[in-house]
Design a protein that fits this description.
5 strands; elongated; single chain; Nucleotidyltransferase, domain 5; alpha/beta; 5-stranded mixed sheet; 7 helices; 225 residues
């Protein structure tokens, strides 16, 4: 009875009688709707594919890669002309990095509301010349204003040329500090006849005015009357 029932059940469900068949692999299960078998390319096949994409030594009977594909891959499709190479080398020879340039001297313009101070320094920061309105005979409140600063700038420019300091200066950087009347007087002298020999050596103009963000409490404003 049992044998008859087992044989009938095996004929009705053939899969029960084939318990020893191999299971489908995980890769096969992941490609359930694919009719082509999954194959892995070997090392030689991968190298041949790379050569074909890069337009190198392609196998016989096959064309090289599309020029558009070569451009996307960063491969030059045409050889660089000799004229273009000479032009690039000429431009590169004319461009001088900032590190190769001669270090610049610095001319500090401190335009305070009570005084104006000009300081000429070497590239390493050591001072060569430093003067204020007090060196010209102005005392106390008379040091402030446009006229004392104008005379100071004219005198400093004359001293730079008389002392021969201009011979050692190839690049000059002007550094402003403050926005008072001494700054306008310096610009007037630099662009005028007094600064004709100095403004040609100016390579950079910068501003180092102090800006306060929070900090200590400012003194109270002075009130007159």
């Amino acid at each position: 009875m049992n044998n008859t029932f087992a044989s009938a059940l095996a004929r009705a469900l053939p899969s029960i009688g084939r318990q020893c068949q191999s299971r489908a692999s995980i890769l096969r299960q992941s490609r359930a709707f694919s009719s082509t078998p999954l194959t892995r390319a070997g090392k030689n096949d991968r190298l041949e594919l790379e050569k074909e994409l890069l337009g190198g030594n392609a196998p016989r009977g096959q064309k090289t890669a599309d020029p558009t594909l070569q451009g996307l891959l960063g491969v030059a499709t045409q050889p660089v002309s000799r004229d273009y190479t000479l032009m690039v080398n000429d431009i590169a020879s004319r461009i001088q990095p900032y590190a190769d340039q001669v270090p610049a001297h610095h001319l500090h313009v401190y335009a305070h509301k009570h005084n104006t101070i000009l300081t000429l320094t070497r590239p390493d920061g050591s001072p060569l010349l430093s003067m204020s309105c007090g060196h010209l005979g102005f005392r106390k409140g008379k040091r402030a204003g446009y006229d004392p600063a104008f005379q100071l700038c004219s005198h400093v420019f004359a001293q730079i040329q008389e002392r021969g300091l201009l011979m050692n200066i190839q690049n000059l950087e002007i550094i402003y500090r403050g926005f008072h009347q001494g700054r306008e007087a310096f610009n007037k002298i630099l662009l005028g006849n007094e600064g004709r020999n100095i403004r040609g050596k100016v390579s950079k103009v910068s501003d180092s005015t102090r800006l306060k963000f929070g900090g200590t409490r400012s003194p109270r404003q002075r009130r007159l009357g």
